[in-house]
Specification:
Blueprint lengths: L1 H20 L8 E2 L6 E4 L4 E3 L3 E2 L6 E5 L4 E5 L2 E2 L6 E4 L7 E4 L8 E7 L5 E17 L4 E5 L4 E4 L1 E5 L3 E6 L11 E4 L2 E4 L8 E8 L11 E10 L2
Parallel strand pairs: 2-11, 12-19
Antiparallel strand pairs: 1-4, 3-9, 5-6, 5-10, 6-7, 8-9, 10-11, 11-14, 13-17, 15-18, 16-17, 18-19
């Protein structure tokens, strides 16, 4: 009799464990929490969260919305993009990780459950790109006195950086003296010897401010030749 009671106790404990370990079949899978967009800097790792409860025998998939590319189905990575992995620590977490994020990764990502009808949750990935120069251009420019000249400072970044010009030493550029700042291009009309000197182009972004971020600058030396 003791052996019977011992076996019965063992069976009850096993059934209790199985009941706790597996979700009820009569419950529909549901997403946990509210969807939230993700913002990361180019080169970092993005983690797109997708938490599901009562998954049962259903499957979870990740899809890139814009291209309709299947990235993963359940525990299997479908895409050939080696930077994409699944952060799957348990049956509830189906997080998508994108390493070394590129600007082309920006967009919508869908986490879906193959219920009928399908249940889905969309996350937008925003990728910030710090200001950088597209073309270093010429560090020294020569112009003949009385001619017009344009100093260029081509930059890129996201959001689009703000470009400002100033004379070396922080001296502001006055439009009344024939110089006009136009973003990436600084137009100087009727160059004179007073215009000769170093000009500093600075690119800044509203997302990259504070002591941790140094402005991107470039110096252009203007030489003026006599007539």
């Amino acid at each position: 009799m003791r052996k019977f009671h011992g076996a019965l106790l063992c069976l009850c404990l096993t059934l209790q464990h199985l009941t706790q370990a597996h979700p009820r079949a009569d419950l529909e899978p549901e997403f946990v929490g509210e969807p939230s967009n993700v913002t990361v800097t180019e080169g970092s790792t993005a983690l797109l969260t997708c938490v599901v409860e009562n998954l049962g025998f259903y499957r979870v998939a990740w899809i890139r919305v814009e291209s309709q590319t299947i990235l993963s189905i359940h525990t299997h990575i479908i895409t050939r993009n080696y930077r994409i992995t699944l952060d799957h620590k348990n049956r509830q977490n189906w997080n998508l990780a994108i390493a070394s994020v590129e600007e082309s990764d920006r967009g919508q990502y869908m986490c879906q459950i193959n219920t009928v009808p399908m249940k889905k949750r969309i996350t937008y990935l925003e990728v910030l790109v710090p200001p950088k120069f597209v073309d270093r251009g010429e560090n020294e420019v020569m112009a003949r006195e009385g001619t017009n000249i344009t100093l260029s400072c081509k930059v890129k970044g996201y959001p689009l950086p703000t470009v400002t010009w100033e004379r070396e030493g922080g001296q502001e550029i006055s439009e009344s003296k024939g110089r006009m700042s136009q973003g990436e291009d600084l137009n100087i009309v009727k160059v004179s010897r007073l215009h000769m000197g170093m000009y500093v182009c600075t690119a800044t972004s509203s997302f990259y401010q504070g002591p941790a971020y140094q402005p991107v600058t470039r110096n252009v030396m203007l030489h003026v030749l006599c007539k």
